[in-house]
Design goal:
1 helix, 2% helix
């Protein structure tokens, strides 16, 4: 039971996604949270709920950005919109009504101070929220909701660029006690109870953690960017797996192309990925156990993998565009029969606000 955040949508000849999606096994409800442009920029979020068959259930509006729903669906955490001063972390009920503000490392800071919340994520047990904030350095903290206490657990040092903190990958393990975090320098496991961190790899791009928390799948020698993976070498590109219990890595498969967007099945057997390095972008599924790769028949449309379904691993939440790239949809694709069920079009934004849209869009399948 865990979550992922959809952190980027970028046009590279076509609309493509760098996706991390929050997923929970459950009744099949799909959440799509998108920022809305207001009078002073991106200041609100609409959360759309769908059944797995594409039926729309309802919408929730939140007065802020980066909104994420708790595992039990009772609460929403978000950055509250303010006309004057910095945004503050806040908690709302399931209808988007604000309950209270939450502490952060830099509460009550002056508006001119360049300090911000970069990312946040609910723990699987719903009792904690991991918060990534940046001042001169980047800090990782845990917010304990029960006693309203925020504890800094790890300093990640200064960022190498202004965009780098937005590209940090961090994911909860199922035990809600450990966090996987990856940046341009290293990938490691951090224990929130102050135990020593464990380094998995140097420069690498994390794909995902298996649902049992026993394996971490990653691409070594690759850095993440807003335009997809940046290779630090030449093909083939290797997919590796780290065994958390044995604390050792092994190579799973080699690919001829660097995945630009990807999704890992829950048990870690299948990897769906988009290759935009070809003239015509193509989507593939790799069987990491049999070490085979198969091209998906997407009927001449571009299919961007976001997440496998929790039941049977045969559905992918995806975006599909035509060859000209002027139509985009969230939807569900059946990898066995090629059927596509459209959910909705992404919210359209102005050019100035588009990057904020890419960074603050969030998809969750429960």
């Amino acid at each position: 039971m865990r979550k992922k955040l959809l952190i980027a949508i970028i046009t590279v000849s076509i609309l493509s996604f760098i996706a991390t999606v929050n997923v929970f096994a459950g009744n099949g409800t799909i959440y799509i949270a998108e920022p809305i442009q207001g009078k002073i920029g991106i200041d609100k979020t609409v959360i759309s709920l769908f059944n797995a068959d594409g039926t729309k259930l309802r919408e929730i509006y939140v007065n802020g950005i980066m909104a994420k729903v708790s595992p039990n669906g009772k609460y929403i955490v978000y950055l509250e919109d303010k006309e004057n001063g910095p945004r503050e972390l806040a908690l709302a009920d399931s209808e988007g009504n604000k309950l209270r503000n939450l502490p952060t490392l830099f509460r009550n800071k002056k508006p001119e101070q360049k300090i911000g919340t970069i990312n946040l994520e609910w723990s699987p047990d719903g009792e904690k929220i991991i918060v990534l904030q940046q001042a001169y350095d980047v800090f990782l903290s845990v917010l304990y909701l029960k006693n309203n206490d925020l504890t800094e657990i790890h300093s990640l040092g200064p960022a190498e660029s202004s965009e780098e903190p937005y590209l940090y990958t961090f994911k909860w393990f199922p035990d809600s006690a450990r966090i996987l975090i990856s940046n341009s320098r290293q990938t490691k496991i951090v224990d929130i109870n102050s135990k020593p961190s464990i380094e998995i790899a140097k420069k690498s791009a994390v794909i995902d953690i298996t649902r049992d928390g026993k394996k971490v799948v990653y691409i070594p020698g690759v850095e993440k960017s807003l335009f997809g993976g940046i290779s630090l070498g030449k093909p083939p590109y290797e997919i590796w797996q780290y065994d958390v219990e044995k604390q050792r890595s092994e190579k799973l498969i080699s690919l001829d192309a660097l995945p630009s967007a990807y999704a890992l099945s829950h048990e870690g057997k299948y990897l769906a990925f988009l290759n935009v390095q070809n003239r015509e972008p193509e989507t593939f599924i790799a069987d990491l156990t049999r070490k085979t790769v198969e091209k998906l028949d997407t009927k001449a449309h571009t299919l961007i993998p976001i997440e496998f379904s929790s039941n049977a691993n045969n559905l992918i939440v995806c975006t599909r565009t035509d060859k000209k790239g002027d139509k985009a949809f969230y939807g569900v694709f059946n990898v066995k029969n090629g059927e596509f069920k459209q959910l909705k079009e992404p919210v359209t934004m102005s050019g100035e606000a588009s990057m904020g849209y890419f960074l603050f869009t969030w998809i969750d399948w429960r």
